[in-house]
Amino acid sequence: MKEKIQLFGRSLSGMVMPNIGAFIAWGLITALFIETGWCPNEKFAQIVSPMSSILLPLLIAYTGGEVVAGKRGGVIASIAVMGVIAGSDIPMFIGAMIVGPLSAGIIKKFDKMIESHIPSGFEMLVNNFSLGIIGALLALLSMVGIAPLVNALNGVMNAGVGFFVDHNLLPLASVFIEPAKVLFLNNAINHGILSPMGIQQVEEIGKSIFFLLEANPGPGLGVLLAYCIAGKGNAKSSAPGAVIIHFFGGIHEIYFPYILMNPFLILATIAGGATGVFLFDLFDVGLTSAASPGSILAITMMAERHCYVGLFIGVLVSAAVSFLIALPLLKFMGKDTSLEEAQAKKDAMKRQAKGIQGESAKESTEGVPGVKIHKIAFACDAGMGSSAMGATVLKKKIAAAGIEGIEVIHTPVSSIPADVQLVVTHQELGERAARSNPNAKIILITNFLAAPEYEDVVEMLKER
């Protein structure tokens, strides 16, 4: 069950994360121009509803379809999703996540069935008409079949959330959300449940607390600050840097190994998260769109203009609660597990959950052909967070070594460019990277911030 949920979460993340820029654009327009915005403008505010009900579902469906069947899959996914868009009066994000990959899978299977039966010279005719006919049928079926199903599911979810809201139990959501983050189930919860409900709530009242339930950096900040004071060895010395990356960079994954070093610390993040949700609810705090990454900067940009005081109070107090609980846990229940061992444990958990038996980074650097390398890619799930940070670190090391003519990019692991000769990625993503670019050499790491394999890469480049 855990493996299936994690696979589900990665699928959702793969459809949503590449389109975060569009979500931010929609959130900014909402924050600025709706009736309660910073610069109310009735004309500009007319863009808000079409973006949430048409543009964003189309982008999600196209991305999901493209992952399954390339550009052709993206096109048929966009056609099919219009059925669920037209068949509902709520933003169809869940519908787009269903219809996009499903319709692309259908056209991919159809293409495989007929690929050896098309007469020479008729390829374009068959391809265009098959896409049009199947796409039209799927749009109609989506409208009468999937749209009512998603509407019913949305009603059930709203009723469940309404119960927690009406009975002031929303802080209890942290009991599930905070452990889920450490177990890498946050994408399934955030993109599959919270974001669709949040966007629907924005259309109704202009903001939503649901965008803050998972994105609040306060609980993780408290744990890292506790390590700055009561940690030992490398964990203590690396904690200040992790604080900056987590709080301002929004990469929450960086504090997961610190939790795994002492699993009792999950109690601190749960308490901090629940405190933050309570205060956000008390001060009527909400964001106008999803904040990704979950940094204090992104959260502030997406906050509704009357919410800043309550927002900062919620984040800081949740961090304080997490810190006050984590500090004695570290002092009196600390373990001798090193940060490196915890990071290895984290990566082993992710590899086991994803069914990946990656080779070691040392093995992956051996036997690299002696060709000139001109392009290196750092790959992660979405190609935005940890990969961008890793690429920056690697660029600096290459520049410090006086090596020129090497381009270092960051990219989603599912779409590594074909002209990349060397790929640096996390151990749990090794197989996906190999499938994405089978001709590139893969270097697997466990610590994207300070991986010793970076030095191996630099030495290898020097030899070229």
Annotation keywords:
67% helix; globular; 20 helices; 4 strands; four-stranded parallel beta sheet; single chain; 464 residues; mainly alpha
List the helices and strands and how they pair.
Blueprint: H1 2-16, H2 20-33, H3 42-45, H4 48-86, H5 93-114, H6 123-166, H7 174-182, H8 186-205, H9 210-213, H10 218-230, H11 233-247, H12 256-261, H13 266-282, H14 296-302, H15 308-333, H16 339-354, H17 361-365, E1 375-380, H18 386-400, E2 407-412, E3 422-426, H19 430-436, E4 441-445, H20 453-463
Parallel strand pairs: 1-2, 1-3, 3-4
What features would you describe in this structure?
There is one protein chain. The protein is mostly helical and 464 residues long. Helices cover 67% and strands 5% of the residues. The chain has 20 helices and four strands. It has helices spanning 2-16, 20-33, 42-45, 48-86, 93-114, 123-166, 174-182, 186-205, 210-213, 218-230, 233-247, 256-261, 266-282, 296-302, 308-333, 339-354, 361-365, 386-400, 430-436, 453-463, and strands spanning 375-380, 407-412, 422-426, 441-445. It has a four-stranded parallel sheet, sandwiched between helices. Helix 7 (174-182) packs across helix 13. The longest helix is centred in the N-terminal third of the chain and has 44 residues, at 123-166. The chain is globular, with a radius of gyration of 23 Å. It starts with a helix and ends with a helix. Residues 351-368 have low confidence and may be disordered.
